[in-house]
Each structure stands twice: as C-alpha cells, then as structure tokens.
C-alpha cells in the first residue's frame, strides 16, 4: 500500500484537466462507445505505467534512497507545474480507422508516453520499493481520471470545474513535492 495509493492519487491529480482528458473527450464524442474508449485508455495506461515501474525499478538498483526521494519531489513539482499551465489541444484522431478500442489505446499511449504522470510514477516506483504497485496505482489513477471525460465527451468541462481542479491539483502536487525534497535534504 506504500506505493499503490500514493501512485493512484498522484496520477489522478496529474491527469485531471490534462491533454489526455481532452483526448478522452474527443474519442468519446467521435466513437460514441465509451466502454471501448475506456478499455483502450486502460490498456494504454497499463502499458505506460508498466514502463514507468520498470524504469523506476532499474533506477532504484543504482541510486540510493535519498537521491531517489529528491528525484520524486522534483518530479511532483514538475507535474504540478505541468498541471498549472494551459493545456494544448491533443492531436486529432478523426482520420484513424482502427475503431474505438485500438484508436483509443494507440492515441492515448502515444500522447501519454513520457509525460509528467509517467515521470512521476517512475520516480515513485524507484523510491517506494514496490514498483509494480506504483505502476498499478498509476494506471488505475490515469484510467479513473479519464472515465468521466470519455463518457461525457464535450459536456465534461461544463460539468467539472476544470480550471479550479487544475489549480488545486497543482497546489497539492507541489506541496507533496516540497515535503519530499525537505525530507530528502533533511531540512528542519
């Protein structure tokens, strides 16, 4: 549980109002098959977070705990700054002819590969000692964050106060990052 729940919360906060949610909205509206879109998003999230967990496990083998804790704090601050800035529109998938599931899985995997959430979960996986729990929590958080966007489509921003949610998520991620950095540097 040391990695599962924090990873879930970090991923959920980092994805709220992100480009991935805009993509989930577009996919939900285009295909009108939210179940297939969500399944594709879940598969892409599992793959991306498994990569993060594997990289985190590899990092943990070579770097001591305090520097990894510092890295995790920096990753959370970077995720917070990414949440705070205006989101650019995701790439269009209008011309993709792979169907709801494969288009969602492919587009989501490409868009989320190497993003702030994957970086933060990789750092958490390195520091937690439970990289696969971190990966599982991250995948669940990403999926849960995108379910309402896939179901509601373009109505999602009207239902959820995305601007304020992004600000709150940025503050929470930033504070968590600062706490980790202070702990890593043994300040105070």
From TrEMBL:
<feature type="transmembrane region" description="Helical">
    <location>
        <begin position="68"/>
        <end position="89"/>
    </location>
</feature>
<keyword id="KW-0812">Transmembrane</keyword>
<comment type="similarity">
    <text>Belongs to the GDT1 family.</text>
</comment>
<feature type="transmembrane region" description="Helical">
    <location>
        <begin position="95"/>
        <end position="114"/>
    </location>
</feature>
<feature type="transmembrane region" description="Helical">
    <location>
        <begin position="164"/>
        <end position="185"/>
    </location>
</feature>
<feature type="transmembrane region" description="Helical">
    <location>
        <begin position="121"/>
        <end position="144"/>
    </location>
</feature>
<dbReference type="InterPro" id="IPR001727">
    <property type="entry name" value="GDT1-like"/>
</dbReference>
<dbReference type="Pfam" id="PF01169">
    <property type="entry name" value="GDT1"/>
</dbReference>
<keyword id="KW-0472">Membrane</keyword>
<keyword id="KW-1133">Transmembrane helix</keyword>
<protein>
    <recommendedName>
        <fullName>GDT1 family protein</fullName>
    </recommendedName>
</protein>
<feature type="transmembrane region" description="Helical">
    <location>
        <begin position="36"/>
        <end position="56"/>
    </location>
</feature>
């Amino acid at each position: 549980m040391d990695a599962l729940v924090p990873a879930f919360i970090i991923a959920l906060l980092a994805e709220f109002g992100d480009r991935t949610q805009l993509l989930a909205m577009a996919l939900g509206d285009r295909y009108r098959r939210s179940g297939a879109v969500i399944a594709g998003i879940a598969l892409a999230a599992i793959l991306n977070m498994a990569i993060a967990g594997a990289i985190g496990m590899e990092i943990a083998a070579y770097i001591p705990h305090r520097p990894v804790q510092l890295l995790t704090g920096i990753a959370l601050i970077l995720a917070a700054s990414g949440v705070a800035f205006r989101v650019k529109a995701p790439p269009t998938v209008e011309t993709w002819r792979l169907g709801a599931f494969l288009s969602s899985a492919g587009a989501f995997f490409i868009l989320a590969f190497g993003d702030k959430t994957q970086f933060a979960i990789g750092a958490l996986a390195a520091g937690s000692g439970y990289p696969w729990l971190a990966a599982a929590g991250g995948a669940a958080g990403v999926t849960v964050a995108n379910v309402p966007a896939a179901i509601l489509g373009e109505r999602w921003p009207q239902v959820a106060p995305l601007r304020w949610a992004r600000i709150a998520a940025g503050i929470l991620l930033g504070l968590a990052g600062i706490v980790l950095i202070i702990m890593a540097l043994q300040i105070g």
